[in-house]
Amino acid sequence: MNIFGKILCVGLLILLLVRVAHADAALTGQTATYDLRLAKVRGHSVTGATGLMQFDALETCHAWGVTQRMTLLIRNEDGSLTRSVSDYVTWEAKDGHSLSFNLQQSEDGKTETNDAGTATRGAGGIITVVYTTPKGRVLTLPKGTLFPMAHTAALIDAGEAGKKFIAPPLFDGTSKHGAEHTFVAITKLLKPAASSFPSLSALPSADVDIAFYKRDPTDEDPDFRTQMRYYSNGVADNIMLDFGDFVMSGKLTKLVIPPSACAAK
Questions:
Q1: Taking all residues of the chain, what is their mean pLDDT, rounded to a whole number?
Q2: Which of 68, 109, 111, 236 could form a disulfide with 14 if both were Cys (CB 3.0 to 4.6 A apart)?
């Protein structure tokens, strides 16, 4: 079973776990680990699955650096196992001017994806993406496209303003289609509640549903969909990853929130 076409969206999910710094936001980086378990199967192509997501967000005064590694072990209908590994690194300027990205994915030790490049916002808000791998590939993205952290800020601002959904285009370097359409629904606002992680217990949160689509008006079904409980400091728990043929649940098992590198500046 080849699941890489859908795994490409998971890097985006992880980036959505970090709250970008803006005027009234607490500064938060994080190191988080999630255990993944099979929650639902559609059809018979997948009979079992387990996995691990490891995520680090480093804040500097001018940018966010994010490193994400996900490993999935899938048991197929014939009893065989497929091991998929995704490594994803980004560096995003807080002013929204640029995003550098590097995505490497393998399946059973064989490289399936190796993409790297830089997206730069130029005059008039038009974004140009220049790939170093594969070398020579260039994309132009439509005006209004957001990078991952700006997308996250838009999500949080929408929730604070009482909006129920937003639908901004997004580019994070994980899709060969360039910018993707996203539909983000804020389904429920939750008051602070006891958590096994003390840093989360005093924070409000929201249940969020996110769907990702190609920029094709005839495409009615999302390429990928996820739900999560999203805390106001940018940490997520109770994650659901819908790959179509199967659904994985993600539970936060380890969390460290370091002090901000810019706290005293």
A1: 81
A2: 68
Contact (Cβ atoms closer than 8 angstroms) between residue 105 and residue 70: no
- For residue 132, the SS3 value is strand
d(CA 135, CA 140): 16
Largest CA distance in the chain: 58
Q: Quick one: CA torsion of 115, 120, 121, 122, rounded to 10 degrees? A: -130
Domain ranges of the chain: 4-256
Main-chain phi, psi angles of 106, to 5 degrees: -135, 155
Q: What digits encode the pLDDT tens for the residues 103-115?
A: 999 999 999 889 9
The single-letter DSSP state of residue 202 is: T
Residue listed under structure tokens 């999302």:
222
Helix (H) / strand (E) element for 86: namely: strand 81-93
pTM for this predicted structure: 0.82
Report the alpha-carbon distance of residue 16 to residue 23 in Å, rounded: 19
